[in-house]
Amino acid sequence: MRFVRPTYALTGVTVAAALVLGACGSSDGGSADTGSGAPSAGGSVTYAVDTEPVCYNVHVSQQDITAEIQRSVVDSLVFLDADQKLHPWLASSWETSSDFKTFTFKLRKDVTFTDGTPFDANAVKANFDHIADPKTKSQYASTLIKTYTGTEVVDQYTAKIGFSAPSAPFLQAASTPYLGFYSPKTLQANADKLCSESPAQVGTGPFTVADYTKGQSIKFVKNPHYNWAPEGSAHTGPAYLDTLTIRVLSEDSTRVGVLSSGQVDGARAIPPANVSAVEANKALNVVRLQAAGGTYQIYLNVTRTPLTDQRVRTAIQRGIDLGKDVQAVYFGQYQRAWSPLAPRTPSYDKSLENSWPYDPALAGRLLDEAGWSGRDAEGYRTKDGKRLSLVWPLMPAEYVKDQRQVLGQAVQADLKKIGVEIQRPTFDIGTFITKGYGGEFDVLDSSWARPEPDILRVFFNSASSAATGGQNASFISDPQLDQWTNEGAATLDTKIRDDVYGKTQKRVIDLAASVPVYVPTTVIGISKQVHGLTFDASSWPVFYSTWTDKK
Amino acid sequence: MTGAGLVRGTLVRGTAVRLAAAVAVMLGAATLAFAALQLVPGDPVAVLLGPATTASPEVRAQIRDDFGFDRPVVVQYASYLGHLVRGDLGESYQLQRPVAELIDSQLWPTVQLASAAVVLAVAIAVISAVTTAGRPLPRMLASAWELVAVSTPSYWLGIVLLTFFSFRLTIFPVAGAQSFSALVLPAVTLALPVAGVLAQVLREGLETALAQPFVVTARARGLTRMAVRFRHALRHAAVSLVTLTGWLTGTLLGGAVLVEVVFARPGIGTLTLQAVANKDMPVVIGVVMISAFVFVLISTVVDLAYLAIDPRLRKG
């Protein structure tokens, strides 16, 4: 019998190839910037993305790319602009109860889904009920409304949404595509097809889905009846573009190549190594967007010796030359982080910047004080004959992004200089999750984009353990962090929020529960013939007011 | 029993044996695929959701219940085989679509790519081998390019071809599978290494054939050198070419993964890549089954091709 070769054995090679061969030249596109004259309707734009959504249903998917792409199809109750300001959208006004458990939305009366169904309070109820229904298997949207108790249809255009716990961050969540609206008709008839079938995607958005070709492209056409853009948009009425095509080009060098040769009008996720080449191309503009939310952090598990000792944690925090490492690995395109929050997140504490610089001498002193004063043959510190060694597992290659494994090597080298050994074993994803969630590793790393400081609660509140769907990777249980993050979730008063979230950020750094590393940044390359591309609070592109000179 | 009856009997028995072997291969592949699914360590729900998730315990319970992860392994295996026998490959965990439908929609681009590559590879190999066999200088040059082609990784070759013919000269677009012009570069990328192997083997066979007395006889009958090569020697050398082509066609499914990613083509490769990355086991298993089926099909075709090429094999 012949041996059947499993076709998936080659996955790792592909990923490695993408990294090695990331560099690629750019050609001259020829045309210069034509200036941004008056917007004009018509034409089409093709935009290349690096990943394809696994599931297109915004209520189910946990991927950023799903929200980014489906923003063209589903609208939300409110709009959060790039400056983190809320604007009316499908809701013309709203009221919140003083305990932040009830939110009453007055809805616009002129909105219809693209299948002709009017958008009203019943549609709001149908959507939220659908998200909360366990049968939907919502991986993310349901966690944004974790304590949802139900929607009351007060009248046709008034919906009252209730929660069992204070939920001030709900307004931010309501602005995201994850809590966007599908036609109740499609929810009823096509609930199981929303993940993958284009005709099922019926929203109120400025575009409708014309076609998905799995593994290749998604084509949108203009919704000619659209007349309910969010307040503050550059124009009203239907979108300018006749068609918008999203091309899936996962291979970095291919994506950069088609952009440079003018085969697409724009592309996201330009690798840092290629940014200067794209910038040098006269036909292209480069847009850099820092994601709001959690920075990329290295979490130190405070329940495991020797990390139970705060001095050891601080030594690690101060013993990594982050500024230099981030600069070198990302060609100066990404900014080094100083806080668990990214600078664009509301309540970001700017005073933390430069407050804990690289200080290997201090790190050494702290380790000496903690009793790790011996040295072994390889130069690592010891205490009672035991080496100061920490386990920081590498995730399987398909989960590693931004060349974080390379950055990890720089961190490893820095810590070796102060006598700390970092071991980076690789596990399959099943073992990784079991052990990681079980708190069996010393160090873990991740980033999390969401323009809402409430993510600090997801990371550092003791009630947010992995077992209950949280991401507390430091396994920290600190009464003050719990109190402040709970307070922040129960108010929208910016003064109180700035205060409690500021204190939270400081305390996380003081306790050295995490080492913030860099601010995740999306670099977009876009043709100079394309104008009016805007971005929302999550740094996702909004194609509604985009127009093109190329007709 | 008459002579015709004997032939029919042999034929029936031969077909039955072949069918039984095919079923055995498919069953083996199905069992291995199922075992692989069971051997993935950790909680299958956690594996499915991946590391960056905030899914609540209720959602996890629902997923566990829906996919039957809490049933005993034997029950899961029996029900899995039961579904397979009825031609039901199950439903993708992540894409929430029947696996058969997914494969159906993604198979055609891969078949297009693989067939184009095989035809191209065989054509290049035949030309390269027939024109150079037994001639020292051309032989050396041809062997050199074949060696380079065989040892070039296909993803690298793909990127080089893209850079020149698509990004710089913009002759062939990266347009996915919509047009013929978009098929050219991926097919060439996939074909060249295969052509290199085939040409080397074919030349070897040709040179052996050319050394035999029937060549002199044919030349004596007044046939030209080329006619002898194509009409007589090639036929002799073709058996090993067909065997190898059959085997390589099967492995092209694997090679297609890389080429499809580089050229951003839809296809089984891309589907598999996504399914593996997301631990979407029903899809992975579906692809394994299809691969097993393709191998069985190809080896049957190859065996039949032997009969067409070599009349000596047709007797009993």
Record the SSE blueprint.
The complex is a heterodimer of chains A (551) and B (316).
Chain A: H1 11-20, E1 44-49, H2 64-70, E2 78-80, E3 86-88, E4 91-96, E5 102-107, H3 121-132, H4 141-144, E6 148-155, E7 158-163, H5 170-174, H6 184-190, E8 207-213, E9 217-222, E10 243-248, H7 252-260, E11 266-267, H8 275-280, E12 284-290, E13 293-300, H9 310-318, H10 322-329, E14 335-336, H11 360-369, E15 374-375, E16 381-383, E17 386-387, E18 389-391, H12 404-417, E19 421-423, H13 429-437, E20 443-449, H14 455-460, H15 479-489, H16 494-511, E21 514-519, E22 521-527, E23 530-531, E24 534-535, E25 541-542, E26 547-548
Parallel strand pairs in A: 1-10, 1-11, 18-19
Antiparallel strand pairs in A: 2-3, 4-5, 5-7, 6-7, 8-9, 9-10, 11-22, 12-22, 13-20, 13-21, 14-21, 15-16, 16-17, 23-26, 24-25
Helix pairs in contact in A: 9-11, 10-12, 15-16
Chain B: H1 3-39, H2 44-49, H3 57-67, H4 73-85, H5 99-132, H6 136-151, H7 154-168, H8 181-210, H9 213-220, H10 225-262, H11 268-277, H12 281-309
How would you describe this protein?
- The complex is a heterodimer of chains A (551) and B (316).
- Chain A is an alpha+beta fold and 551 residues long.
- Helix content of chain A is 26%, strand content 21%.
- Chain A contains 16 helices and 26 strands.
- In chain A, a hairpin with a 3-residue loop joins strand 8 (207-213) and strand 9.
- In chain A, helix 10 (322-329) packs antiparallel against helix 12.
- Mean pLDDT of chain A is 88; it is low at 1-35.
- With 316 residues, chain B is mainly alpha-helical.
- Chain B is 78% helix and 0% strand.
- Chain B has twelve helices and no strands.
- At the A-B interface, helix 1, helix 7 and helix 13 of A face helix 1, helix 2, helix 3, helix 5 and helix 7 of B.
